[in-house]
Write a structure and sequence with these properties.
Layout (H helix, E strand, L loop, with lengths): L2 H4 L2 E9 L7 E10 L4 E5 L6 H9 L6 E6 L2 E2 L10 E4 L11 H11 L4 H14 L15 H13 L5 E5 L7 H18 L3 E5 L2 H7 L2 E6 L2 E6 L1 H6 L4 H6 L4 E7 L5 E3 L2 E3 L10 E7 L4 E5 L5 E10 L4 E7 L2 E7 L11 E6 L4 E5 L1
Parallel strand pairs: 3-8, 3-9, 6-7, 7-8
Antiparallel strand pairs: 1-2, 1-4, 4-5, 9-10, 11-12, 11-14, 12-13, 14-20, 15-19, 16-17, 16-19, 17-18
Length: 353
C-alpha cells in the first residue's frame, strides 16, 4: 500500500448482505481508498448501499466478506470504539438536557479524561467551529446550523483518524446548507481531516469533495474527481445522475463524430467509441437559445420560469422535450415562440448505449 492509502481508509472487495446466504447483496464487492487528509463523498440514490458503506467504516455494521483498513491497520472485525473514528449523524444526536460544553466534552468524560482537560479540549474544538462563548447554551436555544457545528465539534474533540458524515445537511434550508457545506470543506482542509461523507445531493458532492464515489445498486458505478465525473461520466447511469443531464439516442459514425438528430458533434466533442448507437448526455446549461434559424435544432418554447439569476425553459423539439437553464435573464423567450438551440462547448458527454 502507498503511504497515503495506508494512512486513510481502504476497502478491499467488501460485500454486505442482511440475512442468510440467499439474501441479496446490499454492497457487492466494492474496493476504494480515501487518502489521508482528503474528503471522499459516497453519492447515490436511495437504496444504493452508500449509508451501509459508511456504517461499515464506522464499525456499526460488519461486512459479510472483505477487509477494511483505517490508518494502515486492519479494523474489519473491530468495534466502533476501537477504530478511532467519529461520526456526525443526520439528526446530530445532541443531548437536549446538556449544554453545548457538556455535549462536546461528553465523549472525553466517558473516556476517563479529567474534567479540566475535557473542558479545555472541548473549548478548543468549539473555537475551531466558531462556537466560542456558547458553553452554557442548550441545543434548543441554537439554530440548525449551530447544532450542526456542535455535532462536528463533539466529533473533532476525540481527535479521530477518520471523520464520517451521514447526510449532515439534509435537515437544513437551502441557504444554510450552502454555508454549512463551505464550513465543513474549509474545516476539513484547514485541519487536514480524513473524511468520508454520504449524500444523495449532487451539488453538495461537487462542492465539498476531493473524490466522488457514485454507487448504484450496491456497486461502484464510477469514482473520480468532481470534474471527471461531471465532464466525463463513464456510464449512462452516472451521466444521468450527475447534474440533471438529459440522455438522447445518438449514432457514433466511422469518422469519430456523433450524430444527434440534426446536430453533428465533431470528433473532439465525442469520446472514442465504436461506430454504432450511443447515448448523448446533455446538461441543461449546455444549450444556447438563439433566434429561429440561427441554430441547429428547431424548437418551440413550451414553458418558461424566471428564477432571478437564471431562466428555466422547456422546449418542444424533434428530439423530444428539452430542459434548458439560461444565464441570460435579460433575453426573454415567450411561450409558443419559435427559436433554435445549439450546443455550447461544455456540459456534454457521449457514453455507450
Amino acid at each position: 500500500m502507498s503511504e497515503s492509502t495506508s494512512s486513510g481508509i481502504e476497502f478491499r472487495n467488501i460485500t454486505k448482505r442482511y440475512g442468510d446466504a440467499a439474501s441479496p447483496l446490499v454492497v457487492n464487492g466494492i474496493s476504494f481508498t480515501v487518502p489521508k487528509g482528503t474528503l471522499t463523498t459516497i453519492l447515490g440514490p436511495s437504496g444504493c448501499g452508500k449509508t451501509t458503506t459508511l456504517r461499515m467504516i464506522a464499525g456499526l455494521e460488519a461486512p459479510t466478506s472483505g477487509q477494511i483498513f483505517i490508518a494502515g491497520r486492519e479494523v474489519t472485525t473491530l468495534g466502533p470504539a476501537e477504530r478511532n473514528v467519529s461520526m456526525v449523524f443526520q439528526s446530530y444526536a445532541l443531548f437536549p438536557h446538556m449544554d453545548v460544553l457538556a455535549n462536546v466534552s461528553y465523549g472525553l468524560s466517558v473516556s476517563g479524561v479529567s474534567k479540566a482537560e475535557a473542558k479545555q479540549r472541548a473549548q478548543a474544538a468549539m473555537a475551531s467551529v466558531g462556537l466560542t462563548g456558547f458553553d452554557t447554551r442548550l441545543p434548543s436555544e441554537l439554530s440548525g446550523g449551530q447544532q450542526q457545528r456542535v455535532a462536528v465539534a463533539r466529533a473533532l474533540v476525540l481527535e479521530p483518524a477518520v471523520l464520517l458524515f451521514d447526510e449532515p445537511l439534509s435537515n437544513l434550508d437551502a441557504r444554510l446548507r450552502r454555508s454549512m457545506r463551505e464550513e465543513i470543506r474549509t474545516l476539513q482542509q484547514r485541519l487536514g481531516l480524513t473524511v468520508a461523507y454520504v449524500t444523495h445531493d449532487q451539488s453538495e458532492a461537487l462542492a465539498v469533495s476531493d473524490q466522488i464515489i457514485v454507487m448504484d445498486q450496491g456497486v461502484i458505478a464510477q469514482a473520480g474527481t468532481p470534474h471527471e465525473l461531471y465532464e466525463r461520466p463513464g456510464t449512462e447511469f452516472v451521466a444521468g445522475f450527475m447534474g440533471e443531464a438529459m440522455l438522447f439516442d445518438g449514432q457514433s459514425l466511422p469518422d469519430g463524430s456523433v450524430q444527434l438528430g440534426p446536430i453533428r458533434l465533431p470528433r473532439e466533442r465525442a469520446q472514442a467509441l465504436a461506430a454504432g448507437k450511443v447515448k448523448v448526455a446533455v446538461r441543461p446549461e449546455a444549450w444556447e437559445v438563439v433566434p429561429a434559424g440561427a441554430g441547429e435544432l428547431a424548437a418551440t418554447v413550451a414553458k418558461s420560469a424566471y428564477l432571478g439569476s437564471l431562466r428555466e425553459y422547456t422546449f418542444d423539439t424533434e428530439l423530444g422535450a428539452i430542459f434548458v437553464v439560461s444565464a441570460d435573464v435579460a433575453r426573454v423567450w415567450k411561450t409558443g415562440e419559435a427559436v433554435s438551440l445549439r450546443l455550447a462547448g461544455h456540459g456534454l458527454s457521449v457514453v455507450a448505449a
